[in-house]
Amino acid sequence: MFKIAVLASGSGSNLQSIIDNIENGFLDCKIDMIVGSKEGIYALERGKKNNIDTFVISRKEYGQGTSDKILELAREREIDLIVLAGYLSILDGELLKEYKDRIINIHPSLIPSFCGDKMYGLNVHKAAINKGVKVSGCTVHFVNDEVDGGEIILQEAVPVHFEDTPEELQKRVLVKEHKLLPLAIKYISEGKIEIKSGRVNILK
Ligand code: GRF
């Protein structure tokens, strides 16, 4: 069974979309563990409700050793893929090497727009609205040592309306996120992803 770890920092609606897509048979894999970046986040509740092992690995407690601690757990549990679903901490070190091409993230914009430093949560949607772009969307990409810089796996667009508030745009993008992240996991778990010269090819 293909084993995934989901890392989260917030409400975990993307985590829920993975849980749902395993339950409805779209995904043939198992969420082996959930790692939260702090206590009290709703993503951990979702995990507990679904009998998934949950851990809290916080920067506050582990500091520079945060990624190493995650790696230790991932190794121990023989995790195949690490999925960042609203995980706010930046990963580094040996974890990125050992799990190269096996860590993915979902970002709520069309990369390379509105990504990188400080671009998380509503900031992303505020920036898109302030720029006046007519489309935004979401991106699933591999994680490397550059923030939001890994190879792009999938993208999906949504319209941006003139009257949109950041919250409204966020809601519209999230609907797409909840489809895109499970789809990326499906392709990876089925071995359908090939990386060539910094680009992803999805095999038919
Ligand atoms: C999503 O917008 C995701 O793209 C970003 O963080 C948000 C997490 O939302 N990386 P949730 O916790 O999955 O509801």
Describe the structure.
With 204 residues, this protein is an alpha/beta fold. 36% of the residues lie in helices and 25% in strands. It is built from 7 helices and 9 strands, in the order βαβαβααβαβαββαββ. It has helices at residues 13-23, 42-49, 59-62, 66-76, 94-98, 122-131, 166-189, and strands at residues 2-8, 29-36, 53-56, 81-84, 103-107, 135-142, 152-159, 193-196, 199-202. Strands 3-2-1-4-5-6-7 form a 7-stranded mixed β-sheet, with helices on one face. The protein is globular, with a radius of gyration of 16 Å. The chain starts with a strand and ends with a strand. 38% of the residues are buried. 5-O-phosphono-beta-D-ribofuranosylamine is lined by residues 8, 10-14, 85-86, 106-108, 138, 174, 177.
Quickly describe the structure:
This protein is 36% helix and 25% strand. It has 204 residues and is of the alpha/beta class.
Task: Tag the structure with descriptive keywords.
seven-stranded mixed β-sheet, alpha/beta, 204 residues, 7 helices, binds 5-O-phosphono-beta-D-ribofuranosylamine, Formyl_transf_N, globular, two-stranded antiparallel ribbon, 25% strand
The total count of helices amounts to 7
Strand residue content? 25-35%
Q: How many whole angstroms does the radius of gyration measure?
A: 16 Å
Oligomer: single chain
Fraction of residues in helix = 25-40%
Report the average pLDDT across residues.
97
Structural class: alpha/beta
Sequence of secondary-structure elements: EHEHEHHEHEHEEHEE
Question: How would a textbook summarize the main sheet?
Answer: 7 strands, mixed
Strand order in space, largest sheet: 3-2-1-4-5-6-7
Distance between the termini: 22 Å
Give a list of the ligands: 5-O-phosphono-beta-D-ribofuranosylamine
GO molecular function: phosphoribosylglycinamide formyltransferase activity
Keywords: Purine biosynthesis, Transferase
Catalytic activity: N(1)-(5-phospho-beta-D-ribosyl)glycinamide + (6R)-10-formyltetrahydrofolate = N(2)-formyl-N(1)-(5-phospho-beta-D-ribosyl)glycinamide + (6S)-5,6,7,8-tetrahydrofolate + H(+)
Enzyme class: transferase
